[in-house]
Design goal:
Oligomer: single chain
Helix content: 25-40%
Number of strands: 22
CATH class of the largest domain: Alpha Beta
CATH architecture of the largest domain: 3-Layer(aba) Sandwich
Bound molecules: adenosine-5'-diphosphate, magnesium ion
Shape: globular
Strand content: 15-25%
CATH superfamily of the largest domain: P-loop containing nucleotide triphosphate hydrolases
Number of helices: 23
Low-confidence stretches: 623-631
CATH topology of the largest domain: Rossmann fold
């Protein structure tokens, strides 16, 4: 009987006997920090070597085992020629090839005229079967060793495969029986394995490789459930009782009447949802989603006006200084005819000014503070913060979200705004802790962006289009392919393009690339905003939220490098005023079928959420770029495309959990997926 306790798997990997500092350092590099990480390190291949094949029935390219007689050993004296051992059974001959192996070693392994068992990948070369560097060779007495299913783990350099396998084996075989948090009838009804069986099968059968097996699906379900449960707990922690806000909307109505446009129905609907939450006696934790240009900003300012009407302070935070500045200028305009006192605070605010702002905030003299994350420094104390609005929030994870909510204080409502369209299946796993308001229409005056595609070798045809746009006082974005591997390559490719364009349109082009720091980047963007230059060449993607009202043409090079949703967001940067925007997608000459399909979708559709769903279908989950920051990559096992049903199942199961109210039952699960810390679960 083992002395291992249930919770031994949550201990640090270095607490395991036989793992010294060197090995544990290697393992930690592999993201194996705790013993449970070994449990969740599923072998990538599980080779069944138990069947012994005859030579004449071998399949090329597959890993197989044979039992053969050693006929001849051949050690050429010429460098670089491999050693060759010729073997046979009663059906045929096979060559075993070794590069860089010592003769003494091989002579021991392959005794002449003796039977051996060999296992490895079979090839066919010069009309002969061969196995190069076989995985296993042994004499017949030692058959058992090979015949077992041997899991293969992906390892970094520095860990001996056999040693790792031994560690894993020790751990897996010592896991005590766990009280399953999923009821037996639920498992049966949904064709899932129990937890202990799951772990065993994932490591020691082909269940680990088959993402549709009962065990793999169980693991996926657990992962999704842990994720949903965390979000749901997070939600409970945020949506505490608060003082309800009482207002009649005098200020916001006045602002709305002064606007040069009417709100869209979607804007009105979302505003009502927010107002309901403000008046409610539970804290608001809401996300306002809407495509680029759908008009989220004004909705947030009208909500802020209501909060200010009931004598609470408001804060609006943006990810960048430029964006914050745009919001600040807009706010000054909107609240021009009111007594609302607005201030602007960033990391660059001059020290005396900052001291004054901090004082005024504490005295309640400032009604609305706009800025960057400098807003949430420790020193900053509001007198009575009533709402915090965070723009383009997709850069925050769950944990940061709840920390933000905490900082606001007990009467503070939270509104996040995001333009990142999320496919439906993933909504819950990203925003499960929040209420969602969605703006799903755009202001009517906005014309649909004209989307064109062109092969890259016809780039010269673009100069006239650009000239015409400049004459019409339209500004132009030119997006170069992102070269993520190297800042230098990134720079040189953008620089090349800059030089070409700058020759044609001298002194009218700016350049932004990966090796500029934030200030340098901001300086170029400002020049563009001030219309000192008309063309902006960039690699690093410019922040989504900035309003460039005069930008009406965007050229995207190497457009197949971007995902559909990303392309849609990029093109959303133009045509934000009354004029028609144009987007030109440049492609390599030969387009794949998939690429053609993508262009068609982009040309035909304008709805970011629809496009994000198509993006997911076309590219698959593993390949979705541009979502990294949104927390989507939290999944190691689950794939929203393949396991869509399990996402739904978990959503339903969560309802049941919330009714029962016994979170302790899921402590093990939450710890397994590193969620316990996020919602402060005590040690097991
Ligand atoms: P986003 O949702 O991307 O943050 P913004 O709030 O920046 O979009 O709005 C984009 C532009 O649309 C702004 O110039 C804004 O003044 C304008 N706008 C917002 N709502 C409307 C509307 N209902 N009708 C016309 N223009 C609008
Ligand atoms: Mg915005």
């Amino acid at each position: 009987m083992s002395s291992f306790k249930k919770n031994f798997i949550f201990q640090d990997i270095n607490t395991l006997k036989g793992i010294g500092p060197v090995l544990s350092k290697y393992l930690k590099k592999k993201k194996i920090d705790k013993i449970k990480d070994v449990v969740l390190e599923i072998p990538y291949s599980q080779t069944d070597r138990s069947k012994i094949s005859k030579v004449n029935e071998l399949e090329i390219g597959k890993v197989q085992s044979i039992q053969v007689l050693v006929k001849k050993l051949n050690f050429p004296r010429i460098r670089n020629l491999p050693n060759k051992i010729i073997c046979e059974d009663e059906t045929g001959k096979i060559d075993i090839i070794y590069f860089n192996s010592r003769e003494i070693y091989l002579r021991k392994l392959f005794p002449l005229n003796k039977w051996v068992i060999i296992s490895g990948k079979v090839n066919f070369f010069k009309n002969k079967y061969q196995i190069t560097n076989p995985d296993y060779v042994s004499n017949i007495d030692n058959k058992e060793y090979i015949i077992k299913n041997i899991p293969k783990y992906s390892l970094t350099k520095g860990i001996n495969e056999k040693r790792y396998r031994k560690i894993s084996e020790t751990i897996i075989s010592n896991i005590p029986k766990i009280n399953d948090w999923l009821p037996k009838n639920f498992l049966e009804a949904n064709n899932l394995n129990g937890w202990n069986e799951t772990i065993n099968k994932l490591h020691y059968s082909n269940h680990g490789k088959d993402i549709k097996s009962k065990s793999y699906r169980r693991l996926v379900f657990d992962e999704i459930l842990a994720n949903f449960l965390t979000l749901s707990e997070n939600r409970k922690r945020v949506r505490k009782i608060k003082k309800n806000k009482v207002f009649n909307g005098k200020l916001s109505n006045k602002i709305e009447n002064d606007l040069p446009f009417n709100l869209t129905n979607s804007q009105k609907k979302t505003l009502n949802e927010i107002n309901f939450d403000l008046r409610d006696n539970k804290r608001m934790f809401r996300i306002l989603q809407g495509d680029v240009g759908s008009g989220k900003t004004i909705v947030s300012f009208l909500s802020i006006a209501n909060v200010i009407e009931c004598r609470y302070q408001s804060a609006l935070m943006s990810p960048t200084e430029i964006l914050a500045n745009q919001h600040y200028n807009l706010a000054k305009k909107i609240f021009k005819n009111s007594k609302v006192k607005i201030e602007f605070l960033t990391g660059k605010t001059e020290i005396n000014k900052k001291i004054q702002i901090l004082k005024d905030l504490e005295n309640g003299k400032i009604d609305l503070l706009i800025g960057t994350h400098a807003l949430f420094q420790k020193k900053i104390n509001f007198k009575n913060l009533g709402i915090v609005v965070i723009d383009e929030q997709h850069k925050f994870g769950v944990k940061q979200r709840s920390e933000l909510a905490k900082k606001g204080g007990e009467n503070c409502d939270v509104l996040l705004m995001s333009a990142t369209p999320i496919p439906r299946t993933m909504m819950m796993s990203i925003y499960g802790d929040m209420d969602i308001s969605r703006i799903n229409e755009k202001p009517l005056i906005r014309k649909k962006i004209l989307t064109l595609s062109k092969p890259e070798n016809k780039i010269n045809e673009l100069w006239n289009l650009i000239r015409k746009n400049i004459n019409d006082k339209n500004q132009i974005f030119w997006v170069c392919p992102l070269i993520e591997e190297s800042k230098f390559l990134d720079y040189s490719s953008a620089k090349k393009k800059f030089d070409i364009i700058n020759k044609i349109f001298p002194n009218n082009v700016g350049l932004i690339h990966g090796s500029l720091n934030k200030d340098e980047k901001d300086a170029v963007i400002r020049k563009f905003l001030n219309k000192e230059i008309y063309i902006l060449v960039s690699t690093t993607v410019i922040e989504v939220g900035i309003d460039f009202p005069e930008a009406n043409l965007i050229v995207i090079e190497n457009a197949n490098k971007f995902g559909l949703a990303q392309l849609h967001q990029l093109r959303g940067r133009v045509g934000r005023g009354k004029k028609q925007g144009t987007c030109v997608l440049l492609f390599n000459n030969r387009l794949s079928k998939n690429a053609i399909k993508r262009i068609k979708i982009l040309k035909a559709y304008d709805d970011g959420f629809f496009i994000s769903e198509e993006d997911l279908k076309l590219r698959g989950f593993g390949d979705l770029t541009g979502y990294q920051q949104s927390g989507l990559k939290n999944f190691k096992f689950a794939d929203p495309l393949i396991h869509e049903d399990l996402f739904k199942l978990a959503e339903n199961f969560l309802i049941k959990i919330n009714k029962e109210n016994n979170l302790e039952n899921y402590n093990f699960l939450l710890k397994l997926f590193d969620k316990a810390e996020i919602i402060n679960i005590k040690e097991l």
